[in-house]
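Researcher: I'm preparing a figure for a lab meeting and need a structural model of a single chain. I don't have an experimental structure, so a prediction will have to do for now. The sequence is pasted below. Please return the structure as tokens so I can convert it later.
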Amino acid sequence: MHRLDGAAGGGQLLRTALSLSLVTGESFEMDNIRGNRSTPGLRPQHVACVSVAGSVANADVDGEYEGSSRLQFSPDGIRADPVEASVGTAGSTTLVCETLLPVAVALDDPLSLTVTGGTDVRWSPPTDYLRHVKRPLCSTFGVDFDVNVSRRGFYPAGGGKLAVRINPAKPKSLDLLHCPQLDEIHVYSVASEALSDASVGERQVEGVRDALAGADIEAPVRSSVSAVESTSPGTAVVVVARSGDIVAGFDAYGERGVPAEAVGEKAAESFLDWYRGDAPVDHHMADQLLVWVALVGGRVRIPEVTEHVRTNLDVIRAFGYEVDVRDEGESAVVERVE
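Model: Understood. Here is the structure written out token by token.
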């Protein structure tokens, strides 16, 4: 059984451990879960991650409750029966889905997962990031999954519903070292119907366009604006950059008292920071791709070596995968050692 310390990181360490445990069939025990956070221990979305992973793996689980600082997880095979989970209130549904995606390499049949909770909430990827960034990028190395959101869920009530269908996969190694010329920027702006009179969705797009106007970018900027039903009012905007098969994404969430234009500007500024660098993937994807480098090999250039990257790699190495990261000044390269 792998002994892991979760004190130095957040929920990503737990999700990585669960993903690798599902794929390898190896057990782990994690202590001090989220020990350095203001609210340490498992939160509702982490409990949901453990619950769906346990269901898929017929696992023996100890410590699966909110506030728990210790978890023991022992899988016993993989089953592809449909799985349902409720995060409760506005806990992130996208991060629950993220936990199960690597199991594609161990599936014989498609696996369906339905999660209720927050589909677009802070500190997690928005639904449109999962749909328009993660999904097409994964398809380039042979991992296919479908995403459907039947209802959006914003903070604090949640109430959204997100479903994914993960197909069996035999991925090829990653080769994401260089970013081709930018082909297109697409802005996905979503806002609750309750905010339609204030044209919040449209104004978020305007904020993106205004922020990009002063940059020397020749690629066309397209946009999609959606007004959605939701229990709590909320907004999200995702700026998607497409360069050949490479896709990167940059998001921001609406906040009370913050103009919609400023929300769009925030997402655009994140894009511009990435655009001025030389990494093909964004910061969020850098974290998410580490487990794939471990599982299928290859190399990925990431924007920088953050503490998230370092602690995530510690968990990956604890499962026996040799993955190195080489700092190259303005970026870094992550590579599995063969």
